[in-house]
Amino acid sequence: MTADLVVVEDLQVHFPIRTGALLGRTTGAVRAVDGVSLSIRKGETLGLVGESGSGKTTTGRALLRLVEPTGGRVTFDGVDVLALRGEELRKLRRRMQMVFQDPYSSLNPRRNVANLVGEPLRVHGIASGRALDTRVTELLDLVGLPRNAGARYPHEFSGGQRQRIGLARAVALDPDLVVADEPVSALDVSIQAQILNLLGDLQQRLDLTYLFIAHDLAVVRHVADRIAVMYLGTIVELATAPALVGRPLHPYSRALLSAVPIPDPRVEAVRERIILRGDIPSPAAPPPGCRFHTRCPFRQATRCDTEIPALREVRPGHTVACHWAEEIEAGRIRPAQPAAALAADG
């Protein structure tokens, strides 16, 4: 079995809520990430999915210390990331890079592509002068950009090309881990497949490990080895991609998958749709008990409203945070309303 490259234990990122004109008192906290535990094996792609506001991006940034965790533990290749300071943290960051969601805002418009891609090499003292120019040209070629692209500026490129520039910058230091934060969500559908294929090619050629963050399960199911489903700051289900897509256990995962279109009108016409009512609650005031119970069609009032479900292993390698996962899968607990009624309410 492949060794774990990243191990996250009870990760918490809470942002204080302050009142007052300048430095007011703290009156609460936004619990963006609230007790996340997972591992990423070397060489795999772990997909992290969920709605906007579930804490996916904050989790990815916390792994790299781009935001400071409030609590928990992050271990990278046996090193406690949260204990590092100064030069030690700077050296470790050579092995951990990030591709940002928006290729339009993540590139400095005042610098040309050669400067943008070569910046990590200069900052870490890897190359300079002619050697730097040669390495930048190699990186542009690696991501499918013309060699003369280095003299041009970000505004001269399309969205897909800008994301290729971001990828070239991310792999410039030969990292082990790349956190890809919704790398295709801002792109046209016709371009998404090209970037996904490029990510797969880079993974094979450079032996990369990915944390692939997205809200679209239709994309993640094709690129991830395992998938973690996140809701309101917590992991509610984690399994291999075929297991989670084929037999989801958590009601939230079932709802997400039911929204993925199937290119077969006969299957689409008869399959059960689970349409969630309402919005995701505020992370500043998460509901008691199971955090999903306010929207869950399988809610059982007594236990779901008061008892926090543990993330437990139901099948080998398949964990879920639901009190009634086995009963729901077996059909012993049905939705409170028929799927048609849920659709009408939505």
Characterization of the model:
- It is a single chain.
- By secondary structure, the protein is an alpha/beta fold.
- The protein has 13 helices and twelve strands.
- It has helices at 56-63, 86-92, 113-123, 129-142, 159-170, 189-206, 217-223, 241-246, 251-258, 265-270, 301-304, 325-329, 339-345; strands at 4-18, 26-41, 45-49, 71-76, 79-80, 96-99, 177-181, 209-214, 226-231, 234-240, 312-315, 318-320.
- The strands form two sheets. An eight-stranded mixed β-sheet has the order 6-7-8-3-9-10-12-11, with helices on both faces. A four-stranded antiparallel β-sheet has the order 2-1-4-5.
- β4 and β5 (79-80) form a beta hairpin.
- α3 runs parallel beside α5 and α4 packs across α5.
- The longest helix is centred in the middle third of the chain and has 18 residues, at 189-206.
- The radius of gyration is 22 Å and the shape is globular.
- It starts with a strand and ends with a helix.
- 38% of the residues are buried.
- Mean pLDDT is 90; it is low at 338-346.
What are the key terms here?
single chain; about 350 residues; alpha/beta; eight-stranded mixed β-sheet; four-stranded antiparallel β-sheet; 12 strands; disordered C terminus
